Amino acid sequence: MEMGLTPIVCIAQDYIQGKPVDDLRLRKAILELPDNKTEHLPGYLPLVPGMPVLLTENVATELGLSNGTRGIFRQRVYDESSEDVRYQDKNFPPNTKFITQPKYALVEFPGCKLDNKLAELQSKIVPIAISEQTFLFDAKELLPENVAKAAKINKKTTKLTVKRKALPLIPAYSMTTYKSQGQTLGKIIVDLVMPPGPIELASVYVPLSRVKRLDDLLIIRPFEFGTLQVKPSTAQIEELKRLDKIAHSTRKRFQFIV
Asked: Which InterPro entries match (predicted)?
């Protein structure tokens, strides 16, 4: 909207028993599922040229295109739908254009290991095709809680197998600590205010070690200093002891070998 462009959202194609989901209430419920329940294929995918995106599956690991790789979205290629598709969603403005038949997206990956540019494409730009994944949806969630309880509905009979076709991309203006593992970033803004519950050592170490210089790190708000003093868990300590025993045993067995 700030760029003066028409908002465009790619909508996933969902199928049950080989047929498109045509029940509007069921389709809406499935589209609104969080990504961690749909094998990381989003129901709604807003895309604007120039926005950062993140791959959600391995495309070509030998080229550096794997789950978690960051890129820059450049263009989408799609078929125009014969129907005037409209979705009422408060998250998107009224003039949003919804695409239900995306074919692929052109994404620039600066760190891609492609030696030569692909035909008719600029250097480092790679077409990302539609992906297919299967997941389960509990249709009981569509029923009011009191109705489901009164009817004593069996959970197994309400599980629907959904096949989804969508682009394996998500917006990457921000990412979780888990997704950032192994990446080196230019500049980062970190939130060290942890949610309630046990704190893992990786939750602190990983985000703080994504940059090479301290000047490239900004901590967004005050946090409890104890967050930086997380002690290893019992399981971590036991694993270190186990590795020490293996190392000692190995040295003892091969100490006379030159």
From this structure: P-loop_NTPase (IPR027417)
Give CA–CA dist 210/181, Å, rounded: 8
Torsion-angle region of residue 106: left (phi > 0), alpha (psi -120 to 50) or beta?
beta
Q: Quick one: 69 exposed, middle or buried, by C-beta within 10 A (0-12, 13-18, 19+)?
A: buried
- Entry pTM: 0.73
Q: How far apart are CA 80 and CA 78, in angstroms?
A: 6
d(CA 62, CA 232): 34
How many other C-beta atoms can be found within 10 angstroms of the C-beta atom of residue 83? 7
**Pairwise CA distance, residues 41 & 174, whole Å:** 17
Q: How far apart are CA 205 and CA 129, in angstroms?
A: 35
Q: Domain map of the chain by residue range?
A: 8-173, 178-253
Profile the chain (258 residues) by mean pLDDT over runs of 10 residues: 81 92 87 90 91 91 88 88 60 83 91 80 89 90 53 60 94 86 87 80 84 93 84 85 93 73
Task: Give me the phi and psi of 121, to 5 degrees please.
Answer: -125, 150
